[in-house]
Amino acid sequence: MALNKSTKPSAFILPPQLSGKTDINRLLRELEMLDEVLIVQQSQKISLPKVTSLLNQTAMANGYKLLEQTHRQHITEQLTKIRDHAPLLHISFATEPSPKVTETLLGWLRTNVHRYALLQIGLEPAIAAGCVLRTPNKIFDMSLGASLQKQTPYLLKLLKGAALDAPVSAAAATTGKP
Amino acid sequence: MDEGGILLISGGALAAIAAILYFDWRAQHKKPSAPKSGAAAKATQALKPVLTLGQSAQEDVEHIFNDDFREELRNRGRLHFEKIIGENAMFLQQDLRQTTTQLNEYMRVEITRTLQIEFKKYEQSITDAKQLALDSIEKTVTTIEQQRQLLESQMQNQAEAQRNQIIARFEAQMARIVNHYVMQAIGNQIDLSDQLEFILGELESNKAAIIEDIKRGA
User: Fold this and answer.
1) Which residue among A113, A130, A145 sits closest to B175, beta carbon to beta carbon?
2) Which of B174, B204, B213 sits opposite A135 (nearest CB)?
3) Which of A5, A67, A135, B72 has the fewest CB atoms within 10 Å, counting from its CB?
């Protein structure tokens, strides 16, 4: 069956729930299993076996029908191509990010950086707050420590101000004046 | 009375004693006249006109200065001598007392003067020793004060250097310190959802660099 040009988007769309190569590999395995099941039951009138929501969302986002072999094959090809060629970004957080956070970040990356950007999430408790993004050749430290490091002059100014105010406060406390 | 007078009186007394002893010795050692024989009497008689005058004078002298008279003179001399001796002894005693008194006074004055001189020397020695000790103490105090000031200066410099080093190190590591403090203070209470705006802002500011690196990597 030929692809329905009216329902299929111009470019393959990755759902925001699909973040990294692991998810793609999982989808590919699921598609492969789905193919095997559907080939075995080819002669019978069957309904779509239960699939994961990620695969379902991927198919729906791109206007594919999972019962169609050509659609599944096209999804497989696209996913394989994306897995092998899409840019992979590593991002580390202090704690495990919620799916909402991951989806938001992926949405931003795919909107502003690359439409097929993949994300590998890691944990680094020393970050405290913020994140550290690692591209193929660079590391972008967007943690709280790096932010404080950039604001060292401002912190010094605050410290000096506090140090200058401290004797006045101490003298006021000694004399009992507010 | 001075020493010359004492010596004069003593010399006079000694001379009188010597004269008395001399006369006494002469009286005791005078030769008795021998009895005259017949021949000698004759010769004497023959020479009598020649010797008569002399003999008469001799006899008169011997008659006048006989033993009794001599004894009386001796007694008078002894009495006079005893009197002189007594008077002189009295004077001598007075003079001796006076001399002793003067000698005691002199010795007292001399001893006092000597003691005063010695005391002055001793006092001067003590004063010199005291001054030396004071000078030494003053030098020691000055040296200690200099050492204290030097040590104080060194300690202040070291403390200042150490303080500057600590401040510089604190300033260099301040971001990590604050980050550590924040992490210890609020730790896991920071939700990533709350940080999303910050993260997106940081991504936005690094957007160009990220795209550039991805293009190069591709």
Assistant:
1) A145
2) B213
3) A5
pLDDT digits (tens, 9 = 90+) for B25-43: 887 776 555 444 555 555 5
d(CA A175, CA A168): 11
**Tens of pLDDT, residues A40-55:** 766 566 666 788 888 8
By CB atoms closer than 10 A (0-12, 13-18, 19+), residue A144 is buried
- Residues from chain B that touch A121, judged by Cβ atoms under 8 A, are none
Q: How many CB atoms lie within 10 A of CB B202?
A: 20
Q: Distance between CA A133 and CA A89 in Å, rounded?
A: 7
At residue B65's C-alpha, the angle toward residues B63 and B66, to 5°, is 65
Put simply, the chain A residues between 1 and 30 with a CB less than 8 A from any chain B CB are none
Six token digits for residue A56: 């379902």
How big is the A-B interface in CB pairs under 8 Å? 107
Q: pTM here?
A: 0.52
How distant is the Cα of A131 from the closest Cα of chain B, in angstroms? Answer: 7
| Per-residue buried b or exposed e for B67-90, using 16+ beta carbons within 10 Å of the residue's own CB | eeeeeeebeebeeebeeeeeebee
Residues of B in contact with A113 (CB under 8 A): 207, 210-211, 214
For B39-97, write each residue's pLDDT tens digit: 555 555 555 555 677 788 877 777 777 888 888 888 888 898 888 888 888 888 888 88
